[in-house]
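wait is this the right file?? whatever heres the structure
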């Protein structure tokens, strides 16, 4: 019976550790996406957004177009995606929006 209790306790510690890691990765990805969005207020030159995305975000995690930039950060859960999409009108930021797809 003592072995069973030790085995169960070990599994509980392992499960709690896994959950903690997933929560940490989710919070980190959300924080990065929100921080990128928060940097670019309406009226900011859109060229700044494009430069930041190209210099700070790996190519596979960014989509830079003439009037829209999207940067993506993956969380800890499978297929969890945190995104910042910045849109422009007339060369100026019009909107910066955070989204999460789970």
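ok assuming it is, sequence goes like this
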């Amino acid at each position: 019976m003592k072995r069973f209790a030790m085995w169960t306790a070990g599994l509980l510690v392992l499960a709690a550790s896994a959950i903690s890691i997933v929560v940490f990765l989710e919070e980190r990805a959300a924080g990065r996406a929100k921080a990128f969005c928060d940097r670019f207020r309406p009226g900011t030159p859109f060229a700044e957004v494009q430069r930041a995305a190209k210099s700070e975000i790996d190519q596979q995690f960014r989509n830079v177009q003439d009037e829209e930039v999207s940067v993506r950060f993956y969380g800890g859960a499978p297929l969890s995606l945190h995104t910042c999409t910045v849109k422009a009108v007339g060369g100026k930021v019009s909107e910066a929006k955070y989204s999460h797809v789970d």
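The chain has a mean pLDDT of 92. so i think its the right one actually
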